[in-house]
Design a protein that fits this description.
Strand content: under 5%
Strand order of the largest sheet: 1-2
Order of helices and strands: EEHHHHHHHEEHHHHHHHEHHHEH
Shape: globular
Number of strands: 6
Helix content: 55-70%
Length: 447
């Protein structure tokens, strides 16, 4: 839709402005009808940037601390406009190649094994329920939910038919009617995640305070631009962050419950949803879908089919905890990666490769990960069908070699170690901050 709003073109490369929430200042000058953007970078910040970026020009408004930048900064190409522009040109050339060679084409036959898998798991859950094998029934239901998410993800990215109405409808049927989750909420959340990946202030996918902090910046009560609220580093957060590397897996066991809350909050309060048009009609369809879900799952299955309250609680826990590996996979590709802001001159492909990693696994295990273990590839080309990501990965690796950007890839076990290590590091910083505050309090009293 952006072409309909074009009023002109600029010469050279566009440099993003700093939004007001980060200190940008915007004043309407009497002599000018346009908006004048004032540089809010202080003299001290300019001096710091000049000292930090020894090999390259300073990055304005960088949000990283001087202790974070040098080691990480040296691992990537210079942030000069010329270098970053060339990276962008190489990226566009690769994208054009993918279109020409048909990598954006979705092979619908690839969904046949998945449909068979979904149907089999659903039938096994139903049969086990009829034989009163409640725990086994819950297990198969959770596995079905786990698998269904992959196709819902494709639909959310318009990666199936490439038609927004068709793919959104498919997503609603899968996510809302069968899963009790809002595909509309997911698309709103996920699109922002793809734009500002791993940015502590802007990316909702790493804003899990008070339970997780993947950056020390989250220990300073940052304001989330997505949720429009301060992520307070309060007493409860201090307790949880201190042990977050121990609580990572237990908390993710209950991740699906949080998704229910976010889905209903999105649908009921309609934040960011237009009041008219197809999006509003989709909202009504989603509300219907969630009501249908809670009718068949909450009433027909839990209330009518299970004998006791204890059995119902056990069924809910098993079916939901089974989906935990999916939440691990989603966080795996980002939690251990960079959260540093390199500034507005950084190119899109470099930012995606710096903040996202791939997970290596044998081809026969793709169905377990749903093909989404290729997150770095997916972030570069979000609408390439999921079943084609393995084919595109070698081309991305070739691109990385040409432009000098590293392509981070870990095995599943090694990736988990990286995440736990990152959470442990931030927890250690939180403890150090607490110890320093205690020391200063004592010293202040003594002096």
């Amino acid at each position: 839709m952006m072409k309909y709003f074009t009023i002109g073109r600029i010469e050279g490369e566009w440099e993003n402005f700093v939004p007001p929430i980060q200190g940008g200042k915007f004043e309407l000058e009497p002599e000018d009808e346009g908006i004048v953007i004032e540089d809010s970078t202080s003299e001290e910040e300019d001096t710091m940037d000049a000292q930090v970026y020894l090999r390259n020009p300073p990055v304005p408004h960088a949000t990283a601390t001087s202790t974070e930048l040098p080691a990480e900064f040296d691992q990537y190409p210079p942030l000069t406009p010329e270098v970053q522009h060339q990276i962008t040109l190489n990226y566009r050339a690769l994208e054009e190649r993918l279109w020409k060679e048909g990598y954006y084409e979705c092979y619908y036959s690839r969904y046949l094994p998945e449909l068979l898998r979904y149907t089999s798991l659903g039938l096994l859950s139903y049969i086990a329920l009829k034989y009163n094998w409640y725990c086994i029934s819950a297990l198969f239901l959770g596995l079905m939910w786990h698998q269904l998410v992959f196709t819902a993800h494709d639909a959310g990215h318009m990666g199936i038919t490439h038609d927004p109405v068709m793919d959104t409808t498919i997503g609603i049927i899968i996510a809302d009617f069968f899963g009790g989750l809002s595909i509309g909420w997911w698309k709103k959340n996920h699109n922002v995640h793809h734009i500002v990946t791993n940015h502590p202030e802007h990316d909702p996918d790493i804003q899990h305070m008070p339970f997780f902090a993947v950056s020390s910046r989250l220990l300073h009560s940052l304001r989330s631009t997505y949720y429009d609220r301060v992520m307070t580093y309060d007493a409860f957060a201090k307790i949880m962050i201190n042990v977050q590397h121990w609580m990572y897996y237990p908390i993710l066991c209950f991740g699906r419950f949080n998704l229910y809350r976010l889905s209903w909050e999105h649908l009921l309060f309609a934040k960011g949803i237009p009041k008219t048009g197809i999006t509003q009609r989709f909202r009504y369809l989603e509300i219907l879908g969630n009501m249908v879900f809670w009718y068949w799952f909450g009433y027909l299955l839990l209330y009518r089919s299970l004998p006791t309250a204890g059995t119902r609680i056990l069924y809910v826990l098993i079916s939901h905890v089974v989906t935990m590996p999916l939440h691990v996979q989603i966080t795996l590709s980002h939690f251990s990666m960079s959260t540093t802001d390199f500034g507005p001159t950084e190119s899109f492909p470099q930012k995606m490769l710096r903040t996202t990693m791939d997970v290596d696994c044998p081809k026969w295990m793709d169905f377990v990960h749903g093909g989404l273990q290729f997150q770095a590839v997916h972030h570069l080309f979000p609408r390439v069908p999921r079943h084609r990501l393995r084919e595109v990965q070698p081309l991305v690796q070739e691109f990385c070699r040409d432009v000098g950007i590293k392509h981070v890839i870990f095995g599943f076990v090694e990736g988990n170690k990286e995440v736990i290590g990152r959470l442990g590091d931030v927890a250690k910083q939180a403890r150090m901050m607490k110890d320093c505050a205690s020391w200063l309090a004592v010293e202040g009293k003594d002096h």
